[in-house]
Amino acid sequence: MFLNFILFKEGRGEQIMIHAGYDFLGNICILKFDKKAKLKEKKEFAKKILMERKQVTTVLEKSEKVHGRLRTLKTKHLAGKKTKEAIYRESGCTFKLNVETCYFSSRLSNERLEIANKIEDGDDVLVLFSGVGPFPIVLAKHSEAKKITAVEIGRECCKYALENVRLNKVYNLDVVQGDVKRLDKLISGKFDKIVMPRPQLKDTFLKYVWKFCKKGAWIYYYDFGDNAEKIIDKVLGEAKAAKKKIKIFNFKKAGDIAPYKHRWRIDFRVLN
């Protein structure tokens, strides 16, 4: 998403159009400028946001892209309070997080509610790559799941996830810190529903998940790319390699991450 701001140079009457990408996370706005923008112009842009968006108390500039498996980023302070801790509200839930050390996408809010509506009474649910808890907490608040297990590799994310569990007063949710590649060392049992909002990595991580599926379990799997057929073929190939029969029921675009590059969600059942 993008904002435009017209800046008038002092004494000259000249107009400069400043173009910036942005993310709003509760009290924090994170901006990404093009290379031509100067520091003074960035700060004026940030001050304008503080004046126009009363809920925003801190404006940061994204200085590096999200990177690594932990999906961390670097920011620079531009205006307002000097903090990196956001308090964000969604679907009747409250989330606290550090925007540098904990990846969070507000653009998946509709996805989280949509998945919550697919959870049935008494379901055992596994959420992988759970971050600070947005998927599992929204699921806990908006479904009648029996139990939800959330697995996240980042220690900082897990710290905030536990705090968010307390903030939202959900009592059927366990937070497990660890690597999905070592899932068999972290959890036991089988699940009715498995949610995989995975990061943009080559590994599908499906090979670590099959053994935790009940017969007829649903998997809600997220992937990235510009070619839907390649993603479907990849999932079918993973199932075949594991000697699993699956049936795909739904394939949908779940947002854009770059020009001609999309986030996709595949809903499928494991039949054996």
Structural class: alpha/beta
Terminus-to-terminus distance: 42 Å
Q: What is the residue-averaged pLDDT?
A: 91
Q: Largest sheet, order of strands side by side? A: 10-9-8-11-12-14-13
Beta-strand proportion: 35-45%
Low-confidence residue ranges: none
CATH superfamily of the largest domain: Vaccinia Virus protein VP39
Percent in helix: 10-25%
Instruction: Please outline the major beta sheet.
Output: 7 strands, mixed
Q: What is the CATH top level name of the largest domain?
A: Alpha Beta
Q: How many DSSP E strands? A: 14
Q: What's the helix-strand series?
A: EEEHEEEEHEHEHEHEEHEE
Shape: globular
CATH-derived architecture of the largest domain: 3-Layer(aba) Sandwich
- What is the total domain count? 2
* CATH level 3 topology of the largest domain: Rossmann fold
Rg from Cα: 21 Å
Total helical segments: 6
Describe the protein.
This protein has about 270 residues and is an alpha/beta fold. It folds into two domains: about 80 residues, GMP Synthetase, Chain A, domain 3; about 160 residues, Rossmann fold, CATH 3.40.50. The chain contains six helices and 14 strands. Strands 10-9-8-11-12-14-13 form a seven-stranded mixed sheet, with helices on both faces. The protein has a five-stranded mixed sheet with strand order 1-2-3-4-5, with helices on one face. Strand 8, helix 3 and strand 9 form a beta-alpha-beta unit. Helix 2 crosses helix 3. The protein is globular and about 60 Å long. It starts with a strand and ends with a strand. The model has no long low-confidence stretch (mean pLDDT about 90).
